C-alpha cells in the first residue's frame, strides 16, 4: 500500500525533513491553508470539498488585501493611535509569514503530504498562478505599511542628520516597490532598523519570484521533442521519438 512521500524524508535528508516539519507547523497555524478535516466519503465529495476550500482561500486572500489597504489608508491619514503602531506592523509581519509558508508549501511540500489513497487535487493551476500574482502585490503593500508605520526609517538620500524628513505615504509605497523590484534609484534610503526591513523585503521578493517561476514551469504541458529528449520521453521506453522520420520539416 502506497504511503505519503514525507514518511521517507528523514532517511534521505535531515535538512529537508527539518524544513518539511517547520512549514507543516506553519501550515497548521495559518487557516484556511491548513488541512481541513477530511470527509468520510472522500471519493464522492472530493470535488465539492476542493471547491469549498478554494472559495475559502480566495475570500481570506481578498480580506487580507483589503485589510492591508485599509491599514495603509489609516496610517496615511494619521488615524492610527501611536500606541497601536506596533500592532499594525505586527499584522503586516503576520501576513508576510503566511504568504511565505503558503508559497513554499504549495511548490515544495504539499505533494509530499498527499496520501495516494486519498488524493487532494488542486482546484486550478491558472487560479493558483493568479493568486500568486496577487500575493506579489500584497507583499509590496504590506512592506509599505511597515515603512509608513515608522516613516522616520525611510528618508531622502539628500537629507542629512536632523534635517531628514520622514517618508510620506507616497514615499513608503514607492520605496516598497523599488526595493522589491531591486531597482532603487538612490533618491530614498532606509536608516536604522529600516535597513533590516528593506533587506528582508529584497530577499523575500527574490525568493518569491523563484517560487513563482517554479510554479509556472510546473504548470506547463508536457512537450514532445524532435530529438526525443523531452520530459515525456526520458526514461520511458514506450515513448516514440520522431527524430528518425524522414519527413522532419
Automatic annotation (TrEMBL):
Keywords: Membrane, Transmembrane, Transmembrane helix
Ranges of residues in domain Potassium channel: 138-218
Transmembrane domains' residue ranges: 12-30, 51-72, 84-108, 129-150, 196-217
Classification via InterPro entries: K_chnl_dom (IPR013099)
Source superkingdom: Bacteria
SUPFAM superfamilies: Voltage-gated potassium channels
Keyword Manganese (UniProt): no
Official protein name in the record: Ion channel
Protein source organism: Symmachiella macrocystis
Lineage, opening ranks: Bacteria, Pseudomonadati, Planctomycetota, Planctomycetia, Planctomycetales
